[in-house]
């Protein structure tokens, strides 16, 4: 496995007279491969436990060969657990749609129109995208409990707003990059602003909108703190909250937890895999800030 | 807009207040409509709460009891309490260790080593390991906390590797374990950034270095790393920001314990508010977080502008 000598000599013929090709390159290659193998083990072990425990009849926190079963996945798909996943889906979809649409409208205006104090406003928005969400919980809890909004939909809107500053920035960069000509042509043809947005700008900024939407979805899907504090009704519990409930309960079904967290993680992982196929570049920062 | 095309025969009464000058950009009605949703939502649900929190930080607001309804402005009382609060200083220290050690240094270094070593790795190994690193980055924080609790439990693989089945790594080395978990979850992003930057290192420079007889270490130190320097700075700052906001991981893994060993500021603020019911003091700790993140953000913006 770690004997890349043959390959090393093959590669060295690109740069003609290399002083000491075989020994220098092969040491480098062996060292690189060893490093990668060690780091690969570091990255693999936690995930390996997750996969093995999810199909293990007697799962514990130990890493061991499983007694194969699918009972864990059946346990994870109990109605209450599915309900929590459903709540997560509702919350994340609302947050994604609201955040992305509002951010797109604002981003278009910031990119194309004259706005007084545009620079300082954009800078303020950039600052907001770096503010940790933790600081919002006390004031939001006070405001929402005063207004009687401690439930799923207001929390979803709040999550949309927390993702919005970064989404505005992301989409604005994409709109900045497309040429003005098409929009101008459409305006000369007497298309209204909304028509231009729908027929010209949206199709051309699809990769940017997709990145922003993914960012919004991942942000809401992974959010733990805001739903825990701001959703008072147990029936509106989201999936991470339920997972936390499993983890901290006294009789722990390790296999069930593992299976449930795999099901819970799958949508986000699939989203990245599918999107990275579609949009090679530009989507990368999509999940930069969880 | 249409009136401007029909010029009146006599000159407009006052030219100075005339709003119809076309050589000056004006705020359009359309932009108001487009900006309105964001212009309402962002101030109402983000800026206003942050300002409200600044005020709450100077009150004796409680989660339950008498002061949950009838709270009042207490001036410098919270600040005076904070300055004499040993837990606060410990929290600052733990935050600094965690954010710098795991975020700025740990994640960036791990991503850098991954990206550089991947260049020379065998294709199958490269695909597998870069895939794993990116997968670790995409996982939701709750899942990351779960797999690391399992890995660091007394019967888990880390204890097994320490060849001491009685060890409880998550209890004995709590800060180290949560730092490793955080770096584990962020290194994929750093790796992507560095892989992209490595593709821009000119090949002929490396070849010239090889021809001049530079060793692989010399080529790394004198050619590759200097080219990567801007990316290293960007990555370190981004990782710092992301680590600073990483409440969920630590809260789920250790809840700030044992004995405040992992009590970073966001966790301390949450516990003060929703476990010890001191919402006012919790808000003040949140204000400290805002100040730090604003400082970090300024450095970010400053570096971004000075490069251009």
Automatic annotation (TrEMBL), chain A:
<dbReference type="InterPro" id="IPR050901">
    <property type="entry name" value="BP-dep_ABC_trans_perm"/>
</dbReference>
<dbReference type="GO" id="GO:0005886">
    <property type="term" value="C:plasma membrane"/>
</dbReference>
<keyword id="KW-0813">Transport</keyword>
<feature type="transmembrane region" description="Helical">
    <location>
        <begin position="30"/>
        <end position="52"/>
    </location>
</feature>
<keyword id="KW-0472">Membrane</keyword>
<keyword id="KW-0812">Transmembrane</keyword>
<comment type="similarity">
    <text>Belongs to the binding-protein-dependent transport system permease family.</text>
</comment>
<dbReference type="GO" id="GO:0055085">
    <property type="term" value="P:transmembrane transport"/>
</dbReference>
<feature type="transmembrane region" description="Helical">
    <location>
        <begin position="121"/>
        <end position="141"/>
    </location>
</feature>
<protein>
    <submittedName>
        <fullName>Carbohydrate ABC transporter permease</fullName>
    </submittedName>
</protein>
<feature type="transmembrane region" description="Helical">
    <location>
        <begin position="89"/>
        <end position="109"/>
    </location>
</feature>
<feature type="domain" description="ABC transmembrane type-1">
    <location>
        <begin position="85"/>
        <end position="275"/>
    </location>
</feature>
<keyword id="KW-1003">Cell membrane</keyword>
<dbReference type="InterPro" id="IPR035906">
    <property type="entry name" value="MetI-like_sf"/>
</dbReference>
<feature type="transmembrane region" description="Helical">
    <location>
        <begin position="147"/>
        <end position="171"/>
    </location>
</feature>
<dbReference type="InterPro" id="IPR000515">
    <property type="entry name" value="MetI-like"/>
</dbReference>
<feature type="transmembrane region" description="Helical">
    <location>
        <begin position="59"/>
        <end position="77"/>
    </location>
</feature>
<feature type="transmembrane region" description="Helical">
    <location>
        <begin position="252"/>
        <end position="274"/>
    </location>
</feature>
<dbReference type="Pfam" id="PF00528">
    <property type="entry name" value="BPD_transp_1"/>
</dbReference>
<keyword id="KW-1133">Transmembrane helix</keyword>
Automatic annotation (TrEMBL), chain B:
<dbReference type="GO" id="GO:0005886">
    <property type="term" value="C:plasma membrane"/>
</dbReference>
<feature type="transmembrane region" description="Helical">
    <location>
        <begin position="92"/>
        <end position="117"/>
    </location>
</feature>
<feature type="transmembrane region" description="Helical">
    <location>
        <begin position="129"/>
        <end position="150"/>
    </location>
</feature>
<comment type="similarity">
    <text>Belongs to the binding-protein-dependent transport system permease family.</text>
</comment>
<dbReference type="InterPro" id="IPR000515">
    <property type="entry name" value="MetI-like"/>
</dbReference>
<feature type="transmembrane region" description="Helical">
    <location>
        <begin position="279"/>
        <end position="303"/>
    </location>
</feature>
<feature type="domain" description="ABC transmembrane type-1">
    <location>
        <begin position="93"/>
        <end position="300"/>
    </location>
</feature>
<keyword id="KW-1133">Transmembrane helix</keyword>
<keyword id="KW-1003">Cell membrane</keyword>
<feature type="region of interest" description="Disordered">
    <location>
        <begin position="1"/>
        <end position="21"/>
    </location>
</feature>
<feature type="transmembrane region" description="Helical">
    <location>
        <begin position="227"/>
        <end position="253"/>
    </location>
</feature>
<dbReference type="InterPro" id="IPR035906">
    <property type="entry name" value="MetI-like_sf"/>
</dbReference>
<keyword id="KW-0812">Transmembrane</keyword>
<dbReference type="GO" id="GO:0055085">
    <property type="term" value="P:transmembrane transport"/>
</dbReference>
<feature type="transmembrane region" description="Helical">
    <location>
        <begin position="29"/>
        <end position="55"/>
    </location>
</feature>
<protein>
    <submittedName>
        <fullName>Sugar ABC transporter permease</fullName>
    </submittedName>
</protein>
<feature type="transmembrane region" description="Helical">
    <location>
        <begin position="170"/>
        <end position="198"/>
    </location>
</feature>
<keyword id="KW-0472">Membrane</keyword>
<dbReference type="Pfam" id="PF00528">
    <property type="entry name" value="BPD_transp_1"/>
</dbReference>
<keyword id="KW-0813">Transport</keyword>
